[in-house]
Automatic annotation (TrEMBL):
It comes from the Bacteria. This is SDR family NAD(P)-dependent oxidoreductase. It holds the Pfam family Epimerase. Gene3D superfamilies: NAD(P)-binding Rossmann-like Domain. Residues 9-216 form the NAD-dependent epimerase/dehydratase domain.
Amino acid sequence: MQPFGKPRILIIGCGDIGLRVAKQLVRHYKVFALTSQASRFAELRAVGATPLLGNLDEPNSLWRLSAIAETVIHLAPPQNMGRLDQRTRNLIRILSQRSNQVRRLIYVSTTGVYGNHSGAQVCETTPVHPESERAWRRVNAERALRLWAPAHGASLTILRVPGIYAQDRLPLERIEAKTPALIPEEDAYSNHIHSEDLARLVCAAVYYGKPQRVINACDGGETKMGDYFDQVADAFALARPPRLPAQELQALVSPMLWSFMRESRRVMNTRLGELKTALRYPSVAVFLKTISKNP
């Protein structure tokens, strides 16, 4: 590590959230961004990041990462199959090559690790109960990192994230396609965070994250999924989605979509204050008022 100049941060998985994070951090950090596509170099450089070519599925391509930065932000999702997150395992194997090199690691996980709680509240101390391979991979990544961090002198912050939304991440195609939602009495609670707020929370974790800590990075709202679709439809002057009982709806939607729709939990953000960052959009409704097409 260079004794002079800006401290270094490495972002793993620099998609939408990673780009937003990089834009905020380049003022105070030398930001490196791992990408598996050389075609993205110009996009990464445009936000002030230095691109590194490598693929988490190909460990031999990751050699540059072992001594590049003291802080790592891990945003990359697991691979699409299995219960183990091999990508995270490949990453920490490389980071372990330089003992105590990484001082801080922020991992962006998912509230899906809690599983279905039939509408009950969950918080950071609620035991994980994954009910899909997708959630199992996240649990596996969390556990691997929680073992690795203290053994290597690193401070680990895990941010569990619900549904991310933004102006370009709203379910407009679903609403326009008139895909049904569940009837209110069978509907599931959904949880949300605006993409800009999530990026700000990730940055805040760099400064304020406590060691070996889990934080639910959500707005704490308690909106049912169908009501969320109705809010978006109203904001864009679209017809609200029809409602169907669970038995009928399951037969119409994909297994992937159904896996999201059948899990109901109200995620509490009890520890969010530790990051000392107020949300710009404390609810979906607040955000939709800023873009509503209805008078």
